Each structure stands twice: as C-alpha cells, then as structure tokens.
Amino acid sequence: MLQIKSFTFNPFAENTFVVYDESKEALIIDPGCYEKQEKGELFDFISKNGLTPVKLLNTHCHIDHVLGNAFIKSTYDIPLWYHQEEEAILKAVSSYAPNYGFAQYQESKADHYIREGEYIKFGNSQLLSLWVPGHSPGHLVFYHQESATCIGGDALFKGSIGRTDLPGGHHETLIKAIREKLFALPDEVVVYPGHGPKTTIGEEKETNPFVGKTASS
C-alpha cells in the first residue's frame, strides 16, 4: 500500500514528499530542506520508519524544490532523476541562490533523465511519469494508478495553476498540458501539489478558475 508523507520546507513553503510502500523502499521527491532543522526532520522520519530511500526525484528544478538535493544524495547515496529539459534550470540555481539568502546552497547533477511515460520503480510499486510543461520546460508529474494519487509539483494547485513568468515558463503550454495530461486522469485522483493543500482532479475540473469549466480559455 502506497504511503505519502509530506513536509513543508523553506521560505517558499514548498512541499517535500517521501513516498513508500510495505517494502520500506522510498522515493524522496522535491527535497526543499535547507536549514539544519529541516534536514533533521526529514532524516528522522525516514530513520524512525525504517525506510530505505532508493531514488531522488525532482518534478522540476526551481530553487525551492532542489535546495536539499545535495544533502539527500550524499546522505543516502542515491541517484537524482529529473527530465532533461530541466538541466539548464537546475544549473542556474547556484547563480541566484545567494540572492534569496541561500548562500550555502550546494549543486547537484542528474544521474538519470526521466522520459515521459517512464515507470519509476521502487519496492512493490511504480509511478508513471507524465510530462506537464509550462511552469518549467521539463516539469513532470508522478502518478500512482492503484492508489489514485499523484505528486503534482507546481503544475496544478487547489484553485490555481503554476506561475509561468519564470524562465522557461509558458502560460498556454501549461493550460494545454493540464487539460490534456492531468484532466485525462480519473476525477478521484488526489493531487499532492508543490505548495498548499491537496486537491482532486475532479474538483479542479469543476472549479479551477484557470482551467476548469468556468475558465475563459
């Protein structure tokens, strides 16, 4: 049975996820932990629950989602996976991190580029990668069909969508990707976004002012 534990880290209030099953193998997704206490909170949860992290995933590589990449890689000696289109986005973080107060930011590099439609396996489970660009060029969503859940990054939020005014962002692309990729999922699918509370595909189809039934485009 899939389990999802969320943490909210850093000044951007970013959601970090640990996803695991009965095998105790785990994925760490979008580690936003930067301060010592944040890293400790994540480490303690993994340790107390006897989990074995096997992969580190980034839905996308904006600063708030990658602050803990180097810490996770070095602590657990696990590979970092993300979409190839995020390579330049990640490389740019080191140049602007000090401007946001993250002077101790450490760089990280991909060990594997995730392809759309690729299954990411761990324990007795697997997540399907969906390419949902627009917030960033290589943005991915990780979908678990059996539990009707997905880790949505910054594509779709409860009552909102990801911003598209950052480098590599494109509003029309995001709208199209949400409608074609995410809204193709069953209405009961629970979306765990990169910021804010969880929602469902059905709720956002009905009420989201940007992409729902009442949206202008």
From TrEMBL:
SUPFAM superfamilies: Metallo-hydrolase/oxidoreductase. Gene3D superfamilies: Ribonuclease Z/Hydroxyacylglutathione hydrolase-like. Residues 196-217 are annotated as: Disordered. CDD domains: metallo-hydrolase-like_MBL-fold. Transmembrane segments: none annotated. Keywords: Hydrolase, Metal-binding, Zinc. It comes from the Bacteria. Its cofactor is Zn(2+). Residues 13-195 form the Metallo-beta-lactamase domain. Pfam families: Lactamase_B. This is MBL fold metallo-hydrolase. It comes from Cyclobacterium jeungdonense.
